[in-house]
Design brief:
Blueprint: H1 2-30, E1 33-39, H2 41-45, H3 48-59, E2 62-68, H4 71-79, E3 85-88, H5 91-99, E4 103-118, H6 131-143, E5 149-151, H7 157-168, H8 173-176, E6 182-184, H9 189-199, E7 203-206, H10 207-215, E8 222-226, E9 232-240, H11 250-261, H12 263-271, H13 274-277, E10 283-284, H14 286-291, H15 295-305
Parallel strand pairs: 1-2, 1-3, 5-6
Antiparallel strand pairs: 3-9, 4-7, 4-8, 4-9, 4-10
């Protein structure tokens, strides 16, 4: 009996070895490279990145993985080497990310505008007024006890923009946070909009996220000021420096950056939202800057988001010269 078991045992072991080997070969030949993208919430919450992921992964053997957070936290992930590339919208923070040696090969990929939103009744009477004047009116009405302001308060790109606007309007953002009418949410754009809606308050939002939640009926707030230079919103892609973090997927990151700036990638960005919302949520920045098709907005982008007259100074470039031709 024992003699008959030995051949069967040997055969079973052999089958198992072959099976494992075959499985290993199959997985090795089909597994995609993994790319971690730390991204601002507005690109993710609107659904744009879902569309980009589908199109990108049909073209390249790379599995996109998104971490949706505010710009400040997205940069922190990259500084620790926990992301391969970032998608953000805060030029001041982006410059620091380049100068500290973590980021390389910055490319501007898209733009839209922030919008000041508030209740239909507009108690501070800011509708269609210049942005800085509108903020002054909100402060006055807030201090009179007639309105509230809701801030993301999360060190995101939108929060950074808000603080810069308060400063430009002549107010100290830190002091404003201490006033009773000013509410810090410490959360993403979606939650901030919902909180502002709950309080019938004013807030600063990126147009894409506002349109999505307004269209879905999740909020009743109205867009009161939009498409001013002061409200310009520019999105950039920046790869993480492999010299600083050897484990990052730099080649995959640059494949993704090149895709985003390609005609195909820019087409996906430009077309997103047109069918559902009747307008695009994000505009192609690459074609605009190359062709100067709208000189006014192109100049706004250069003034707002360029460093030393370029989107990425030469000392922060690592190969891929074709991106800057």
């Amino acid at each position: 009996m024992r003699k008959t078991l030995i051949p069967w045992a040997t055969l079973l072991v052999a089958v198992a070895v072959v099976s494992v080997a075959a499985t290993s070969y199959y997985l090795g030949s089909t597994t995609k490279g993994r790319l971690i993208v730390s991204t601002t919430t507005s690109l993710y919450d609107t659904g744009l990145l879902d569309t980009i992921e589908i199109d990108f992964e049909t073209r390249y053997p790379i599995d996109l993985n998104f971490i949706s957070v505010g710009t400040g936290i997205a940069i922190q992930h990259a500084q620790r080497g926990d992301a391969d590339v970032i998608l953000v919208h805060s030029p001041t923070d982006e410059l620091k990310f380049l100068t500290d040696g973590t980021g390389v090969n910055r490319k501007i990929i898209a733009y839209n505008f922030f919008t000041l939103v508030g209740p239909e009744t507009d108690p501070a009477q800011i509708r269609n007024t210049p942005t800085l004047e509108a903020l002054a009116r909100i402060v006055e009405a807030g201090r009179n006890g007639t309105v509230k302001w809701v801030s993301r308060g999360d060190n995101s790109g939108t929060h950074s923009k808000e603080k810069s606007l308060w400063t430009a309007a002549g107010f100290d953002p830190k002091n404003l946070t201490k006033e009773s009418w000013y509410i810090n949410v410490g959360s993403g754009m979606a939650e901030t909009l919902k909180k502002a809606d709950y309080f019938s308050a004013y807030t600063l939002a990126d147009t894409g996220t506002y349109l999505k939640y307004s269209k879905e009926g999740a909020i009743t707030l109205r867009s009161l000021i939009e498409q001013e230079m002061d409200l310009l919103n520019v999105y950039s892609a920046i790869a993480v420096n492999q010299t600083l973090h050897p484990s990052v997927n730099f080649q995959g990151a640059m494949t993704f950056v090149k895709y985003l700036t390609s005609d195909e990638g820019q087409q996906v960005i430009e077309q997103f939202g047109k069918e559902e919302f009747g307008q695009t949520l994000f505009y192609s920045a690459v074609r605009l800057l190359k062709g100067n098709t709208n000189p006014t907005i192109a100049q706004w982008i250069r003034e707002y988001a360029y460093f030393d007259d370029t989107e990425c100074p030469t000392q922060y470039r690592k190969g891929y010269a074709e991106l800057y031709g």
